[in-house]
Amino acid sequence: MDDSIQHVEKPGLEEVEKTEESEKCEAFFTEKDEKKLVRKLDFWIVPLMMFTYMLQSYDKGIMSAATQFGFNDDLGLTTVIGYEADGTAITDNQRYSNASMIFYIGYLVGTYPMMFMTQHFPLSRVIAISTFLWGIVVMSTAGCTNYAGIMVVRLVLGMLESAVAPTFTVLVTFWWTRDEQALRTGLWYCCVGVATAISPLINYGLGQIHSSLATWEPMFLVLGAITTTWGVVLFFTLPDSPHTTKGLNDFERRIALTRLERNQAGTITRDFDKGQFLETFRDPKMYSCTLIILLTGVPSGAIGTFGTIVINGFGYTHFESLALTCPIGALTALSILIVGYVTRKCPGTRYLCIIICALISIAGTLICWFGPRNNKGLLFAGIFLIAVQVAAGGLAVSLAASNIAGHTKKAATSASTFAGYCVGNIIGPLIFGASPGPLYRSGFIGSFVCLCAVVVIASLSWVYLRIENSKRDKRCRPASDYHHLHSIEENLTDMQNEEFRYVL
Q1: How many CA atoms lie within 13 A of 293 on its CB side?
Q2: CA-to-CA distance for 396 and 409, rounded, in angstroms?
Q3: Which residue, among 227, 67, 53, 198, has the nearest Cα to 140 in the 3D structure?
Q4: pLDDT 10s digits, 298-348
Q5: Is residue 135 a part of any domain in this protein?
Q6: Residue 487: pLDDT above 70?
Q7: Is 17 within the bounds of a domain?
Q8: What whole-number distance in Å separates Cα of residue 401 and Cα of residue 416?
Q9: Which stretches are transmembrane (predicted)?
Q10: Considering only CA atoms, which of 431, 432, 401 is closest in space to residue 414?
Q11: 394 or 25: which carries more pLDDT confidence?
Q12: Is 263 exposed, middle or buried (0-12, 13-18, 19+ CB in 10 A)?
């Protein structure tokens, strides 16, 4: 990486002119003006991202709630293969696991095509149309009558939902500075927990609808209709970039573009840069973030898919199993928000927070692995602690956004990290489905190993980037000595720009 850093001994005439121009540019607005714009963005764009991501998480997770209302039996996804001494049924959930896994295969297949689409078409339009279409697919799930049908529907659903998270990761870099990005990313990412917290009781209510439909079908019809309507709302309200949005006046637009230049993260362009795309796959940071997201995705995907089934296996009733996922979702959202706030107030702690979250969840996997089966409260506490690791994945998403510059490289990195997310969520249900319920020992063992790997990777990444920042300070000058010698129109990557310093 060092060879690609541009060496600077002394600023030349052209650099001095750029410095003066940058200082003049920032002189036209005050700190109060900037705070007013940030507040406007926070109340305008963040809620749109939050509700969209909540719907995405809710829609993909409806199937888990539907299992408590005969969904598996009606579609032939679960079979009883025997009984324990106390009469507890031993179940084979492989088909259900496959129906969950195929969603993430679709997500994986759709991720890079969606990335290319956002490079050639307005980002906001890609998100809005994808949301509208996946709402229709969710509604069509109610028409499934067999294993083959649910596999096709889940595959298409994954392809369409792949537009959201990678695109939001890039969208955050258009509007907020690097110091602000972790909290804003955390706000929309925490909605996976919000969806988990609010969906069980809503789903239970929908499951009480008595009609000619199966008890699980109204869940898909109602939520699909809401999502389709929201897609229309996004089409008219979600902005694309500071360059093109009509939601800013000229003064606000100039402030937004100046803040974008302060990021040193390159310009916003519709041109695909092959060199930046290839550089993505030579960058250790991309692999670090991808692996952390992949490894946290294993327990996350498993609990998201098997959560109610596992809790039911502890000895709780169907309603209790649904209700107990509410506090799990609340803890997930709260942990993401807490680490987002901590990293905003205490710079340089993102990797440390990843490690702490992983260690807490490691304790949870050990409880579920070794805990006595007759102590259902203790076992639930283990599941409760495992949920904290979702915050580690959220921080890795923010690091992928903050530590990458160059528009094409940012888009490719975001797509790659969420490809890792897909792989993790494919592995999670597979390892849980590989061992019979209600013990699911292979699932908890696999989750333990993955979270231990997260601790190792986060530690090594922190050391590597700290050394890299130090090298850049020695070879060039400390980042604080620069005054934006490069304009955003140069669209330099972080490996090319000597002013860029990595967030820890």
Answers
A1: 27
A2: 16
A3: 227
A4: 988 777 767 777 887 788 887 787 778 888 888 999 999 999 889 988 989
A5: yes
A6: no
A7: no
A8: 12
A9: 96-114, 126-149, 155-175, 218-238, 291-316, 322-342, 351-372, 378-399, 411-432, 444-465
A10: 401
A11: 394
A12: buried
Cα distances (angstroms) measured from residue 255 to each of 197, 260, 265, 372, 395: 38, 9, 16, 59, 27
Q: Is residue 460 part of a domain?
A: yes
Residue 199 predicted with pLDDT over 70: yes
Kindly report the pTM of this predicted structure. 0.79
Rounded to a whole number of angstroms, the CA Rg of the chain reads 23
Tally of domains within the chain: 1
At 45, the amino acid letter reads I
The pairing of strands 79-83 and 89-92 is: antiparallel
Strand positions, DSSP E, 45-128: 79-83, 89-92
What do you get for the CA distance between the two ends of the chain, in Å?
Answer: 17
**CB 172 within 8 Å of CB 416:** no
Task: State pLDDT tens for residues 257-290.
Answer: 888 777 665 556 667 778 888 898 999 999 999 9
Domain that holds residue 269: 30-490
Q: Note whether residue 18 is domain-resident.
A: no
The residue written with tokens 């092959």 in the block is 274
Peptide bond into 242 cis (omega under 30): no
Structure tokens at 22: 């940058």
How far apart are alpha carbons 394 and 354 in whole angstroms?
9
Q: Nearest-CA neighbor of 460 among 371, 339, 354, 367?
A: 354
